[in-house]
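Slide 14.
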Amino acid sequence: MKRHTGARFRSRARRRIRGLSRQVMANDVSVIIPVFNGALYLGEAIESVLAQSHRPADIIIVDDGSTDATPDVANSFGTKIRYVRQDNTGLSASRNAGRALAKTGIIAFLDCDDLWHPRKIEWQLSALARELGPAMIFGQVVQFVSPDLSAEEQAQLKFDPAPSAAMFASALLMRNTDFELAGPFDTTLRVAEFIEWYGRAQDVGIRTVVLPEIVCRRRLHRDNMGRRNPGNRVDFARVMKRILDRRRLGA
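Slide 15: predicted structure.
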């Protein structure tokens, strides 16, 4: 009789441990960092994730066919990260690939040139816990000039250093299942891919929550300066038209 009771206790304990493991996994975070030729800034981005007050369960680096020292930088972190490499197919494909590899119930994205506040995940998890329905948790962002820019390059930059609400990838945290409601990032887009995805997320009823805290520092540097050209404005306009057309049809 005692042996039977002990067996039942052990069986109950095993079920409880499995249940707790599933619960932890459902409430923990996978961080997805897409990178293409980002060796100069990638290390700082990873360090800002490792410095989180709530450490994520998984940090996934998706290298989109870099030709610089990106693999060396990523691999220098050893088992602290998961490094995967793919042919160069663009930012949307990299984010989609990283999300497909995520093993946890909650995901967050970080572009390789941005930096997180040390309490970003902690603050956003607390906010997400209060949301019973589908939700996207954002926060405030501040922009900063990368110190590697020359004085002449810095003088060309015109930006507002004040914090502002940030609805962009590096500031997002959400449940993986909620992300699936909107679907993957559009791999046909080279710019404005997050704006297009965010429009779909809103249209399927995912709630936007913007925290008052600064969760991200957005770096201004040579590459994102170079993307500011008339062709990009045309692509942004096309994306906005697509969103408006879809909403008209939905109405």
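Speaker note: The radius of gyration is 20 Å.
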